[in-house]
Amino acid sequence: MPRRSILLFAAACAVIAAALIVTTLVLVSRPSGAPRAGEVITSGQADVGGPFQLVDHDGRPVDQSMLEGKWSLVFFGFTYCPDFCPTTLAALDATKQRLGDKAKDLQIVFISIDPERDTPQALKDYLSSDGFPEGVIGLTGTPAQVKAAADAYKAYYQKVGEGEGYTMNHSLTVYLMGPDGKFRTAVAEELGPDRSAEVIERAMARG
Length: 207
What we know:
globular, two-stranded antiparallel sheet
């Protein structure tokens, strides 16, 4: 092997070895209170959330001030969702049970990304289904209002198909907002009720 190739190969090996050492040190030295896989911890200053104008499942106009004074789990979905939305809502119900008394300071806000079908009454009927958390606040609005809210939360959605049988693709993140209405952390769908409760409890402890 030419001397230049040998030197380049040796340098590449050194870089890979250094990366492995750094990775090992990070994994081994992670403090017990540090975020686990699937968790995102912030200081509340992330560019997530903001002003919105929607209506709740009783047809009353609401804005971002509804998040103030309580911890909130904000989730974007739609009532015709065949799997992820009902699964997530059921998981949030289990999470609230794990939180015990702390759950009284927590509200769940379900924002529809399908205003064409999700009227306030449709949301109200859907969210009263067995297995869903009690007291979930359903929000909808005009297409422009829904888009503005989704944009504020960096939530993705897209209509797929035409006619009555269309569906909606959308992101699955649940956003934990603090009593000041600011973003605290994202609760990943795959964490499960136990881990999700831990994430929320730690955020509440930090304030």
